[in-house]
Design a protein that fits this description.
2 domains; seven-stranded mixed beta sheet; alpha/beta; single chain; Nucleotidyltransferase, domain 5
């Protein structure tokens, strides 16, 4: 009982400390950016791709300084597929997000955080201009030197490393990066799996799904016997074709 009470007490103290740090960060942001009140809702954006392939974007949300994961969104980027263009990608995702918010009559966030420097910030503002929408407060957080980019200020803002506002922005930026990278890896993995099964005679989209559902991975399909493939729901001729196909590739 004593140990449990100590544990609960420590958890409570940690939550209170995190709350105080978040509140300090939000208040510092409001002062720094001249906001009318600490930003209750911040939406952060990041782009992820590999040499322009499987380009995706993430939107993560902080409410009162804490992640609101139910509000996270992810996007497949259309304009820059096959071409590494972070600026065009950022313009697309910001435009898609806030045109919809505007069309549905919903409230904009108190602050938008863009992962990147002045180029990415300019791309985000360009999306608002193209849509004829007045943007809410919007800033960028440039990597390496962790500089805050404010559109109407010539020089970026450099905060000390211990700044609660900087820590809050870094947490949101890192979360947007994590969420975008996870989605990008998921799509890449799916693409690789499908490409390995695409060239097998007699295996179309439906049978690919059946195989992956039954065996769980391409590696397991490769090692399956003809009998196992048949038990997995395939006609014997197709099962024999799959078995021989992978033996030909890897004798």
């Amino acid at each position: 009982m004593a140990a449990k009470n100590v544990s609960l007490g420590l958890q409570r103290a940690e939550k209170e400390q995190n709350y105080e740090q978040a509140l300090e960060g939000l208040q510092e942001l409001a002062t720094l950016l001249g906001l009318p009140h600490p930003p209750e809702r911040i939406e952060g954006f990041d782009i992820s791709h590999f040499q322009g392939q499987q380009t995706v974007a993430s939107m993560v949300v902080a409410e009162n300084g804490f992640p609101a994961k139910h509000a996270y969104r992810r996007f497949k980027i259309r304009v820059a597929e096959g071409i590494p263009d972070d600026f065009a990608s950022m313009e697309e995702v910001v435009g898609r997000r806030y045109r919809r918010v505007h069309h549905e009559g919903r409230a904009f966030p108190d602050l938008i955080l863009i992962d990147g420097g002045r180029g990415q910030v300019s791309a985000a503002l360009k999306a608002f201009a193209a849509a004829g929408i007045s943007p809410p407060p919007l800033i960028g957080l440039a990597k390496k030197e962790e500089l805050i980019i404010v559109p109407d200020r010539k020089d970026p803002i450099r905060l000390p490393r211990h700044s609660p506002a900087l820590k809050l922005l870094q947490q949101l930026r890192d979360e947007s990066h994590r969420f975008a990278l996870g989605y990008h890896r998921q799509l890449r993995s799916k693409r690789v799996i499908n490409s390995e099964l695409n060239d097998i005679p007699g295996v179309g989209p439906h049978r690919r799904q059946v195989l992956l559902r039954q065996f769980g991975s391409v590696a397991r399909i490769k090692t399956a016997s003809v009998a196992e493939l048949v038990l997995g729901g395939l006609p014997r001729t197709v099962a024999e074709g799959i078995y021989q196909y992978f033996r030909t590739l890897d004798p």
